[in-house]
Amino acid sequence: MSEAVTRLDAMSEPSIFTRILQGEIPAEIVAETENVFAIRDIAPQAPVHLLVIPKTQRYRNVVELAAGDPALLAELIGLADSVAAEHADGDFRLIFNTGEGAGQTVFHVHAHVLAGGLNEKSLGG
């Protein structure tokens, strides 16, 4: 396993994303870097709906990630741009849910890449 996987250390139990990365839960990994990976969302809210996730579960949300590791946040956004270029026309919406009241259900920071026929008035597709 990669060094990034071995440094998953923040939570007492592995998140669903960590379990996917470790091969315990099946998912289609569509792209990967040393520190970040992207999968298809199992309940898509747009024609293209991908999740981009750091391999560490150290950060619960984007605010913690930005404060704790800006370079990792930049890598996550770079991979979001790459998967949007590959799986859509390069135009995309990038969404981070932060907190239960904002719809966050998995407290392992991740970005939603939405694309395909979106307009300014649509929140999710």
UniProtKB/TrEMBL annotation:
It comes from the Bacteria. Residues 16-123 form the HIT domain. The active site is at H110 (tele-amp-histidine intermediate). InterPro entries: Histidine_triad_HIT, HIT-like, HIT-like_sf. A motif (Histidine triad motif) lies at residues 108-112. GO terms for molecular function: catalytic activity. PANTHER family: HISTIDINE TRIAD HIT PROTEIN (PTHR23089). This is Histidine triad nucleotide-binding protein.
